[in-house]
Write a structure and sequence with these properties.
Layout: E1 5-9, H1 13-24, E2 28-32, H2 36-55, H3 61-69, E3 71-74, E4 85-88, H4 94-107, E5 113-116, H5 123-127, E6 138-143, E7 152-157, H6 163-176, E8 179-184, H7 191-207, H8 213-223, H9 230-237, H10 239-253, H11 262-269
Parallel strand pairs: 1-2, 1-4, 2-3, 4-5, 5-6, 7-8
Antiparallel strand pairs: 6-7
Helix pairs in contact: 1-2, 7-9, 7-10
The structure holds acetoacetyl-coenzyme A.
Residues 49, 52, 56, 58, 119, 144-146, 148-150, 192, 227-228, 233, 237 line the site of acetoacetyl-coenzyme A.
């Protein structure tokens, strides 16, 4: 099935990036938020990203304009009635995601693919929000931040996801220039199951005073050739998001390497969520 019209629900860090890469690949994108100013802000953020590319001589101004012209911001969920693919990238919370999917189930065409950009919540649990006829086309489509830069898409098959849906998403990912890995529907899927123990261990080493945040990050950057150290990566992802994923993993596996460190709980409790609030394990000029 050819996917040409994409409805992206959620215009935040992940949603705006997901909208951008689809529009850049020639798709017609509707970017939805219940509050129109947030949908428009997401589209403006894409404009800013594209403008930086123009400034570096990597994108023609005419291409920037053409990409932006393919993105419509909306606060009207009924616009999903036109979609070949619906991608949901709203807050990582079961209740928020399931209530949105139940609404989308009522408006989207029967043939649409339903892709959730969850980073850890069970696909079967989310697919339970839509009618049974829809579940074969319900799939996890996990992008990585920054979406325009990171070349991976993790596809997660629920127990009802069919081969046609996986094939359609593989074809689309190739058009977006992304490589696909496939995970079973297990807590944290593949990438976050690998990543979270690393972030947690770095936090525990910091908490115990084994080294400074700067040295822990330099150790991974210089000694392991990681682009970012684990504490700066946690700040970049968002400490609330990291905590949510660790909780899902710990609840799912009940193993100590997934237990959220006390310092993470404390920082989130104090409202220090990393880059987006200006403070996490590091501080960020605002
Ligand atoms: N949005 C769009 N583009 C961005 C960007 C952003 N937020 N940040 C950087 N870029 C682009 C830059 O424009 C630049 O593009 P060009 O090569 O075309 O010029 C390119 O990325 C490199 O940027 P910089 O040179 O400014 O900086 P850098 O070399 O330090 O790279 C980085 C920045 C790409 C973010 C790099 O540090 C990196 O790869 N970090 C690790 C990111 C990572 O691990 N992401 C996965 C997080 S886990 C996740 O997302 C899933 C989950 O469920 C939690």
């Amino acid at each position: 099935m050819a996917i040409e019209r994409v409805f992206v629900a959620g215009a935040g860090l992940m949603g705006h990036g997901i909208a951008q890469v689809h529009a850049a690949a020639g798709k017609h994108v509707t970017l939805y938020e219940p509050d129109l100013s947030r949908a428009t802000a997401g589209r403006d953020r894409i404009g800013g990203n594209l403008e930086r590319q123009v400034g570096k001589g990597r994108l023609e101004a005419s291409e920037r304009d053409a990409i932006l012209a393919r993105i419509a911001a909306t606060d009207d969920l009924a616009a999903a009635a036109e979609a070949d693919l619906v991608v949901e990238a709203v807050f990582e919370d079961v209740a928020v995601k399931t209530s949105l999917w139940a609404e989308l189930d009522r408006v989207a065409p029967p043939a649409a693919v339903f892709g959730t950009n969850t980073s850890s919540i069970s696909i079967d649990r989310l697919a339970g929000a839509v009618g049974e006829a829809r579940r074969p086309a319900f799939v996890g489509v996990h992008f990585f931040s920054p979406v325009p830069v990171m070349p991976l898409v993790e596809l997660i098959r629920g127990s009802a996801t069919d081969d046609a849906t996986e094939a359609a998403m593989r074809e689309l990912a190739a058009e977006l220039g992304k490589q696909v890995i496939v995970s079973a529907d297990r807590p944290g899927f593949l990438v976050n199951r690998i990543l979270m123990p690393l972030l947690g261990e770095a936090m525990r080493a910091y908490e115990e005073g084994t080294g400074t945040a700067e040295d822990i990050d330099a150790g991974a950057r210089i000694g392991l050739n990681h682009p970012m150290g684990p504490l700066e990566l946690a700040d970049f992802i968002g400490l609330d998001v990291v905590l949510g994923i660790m909780r899902v993993l710990h609840d799912g596996f009940d193993q100590p390497q997934f237990a959220p460190p006390a310092i993470l709980e404390r920082l989130v409790g104090e409202g220090h969520l990393g880059q987006k609030t200006g403070r996490g394990f590091h501080t960020y000029p605002r």
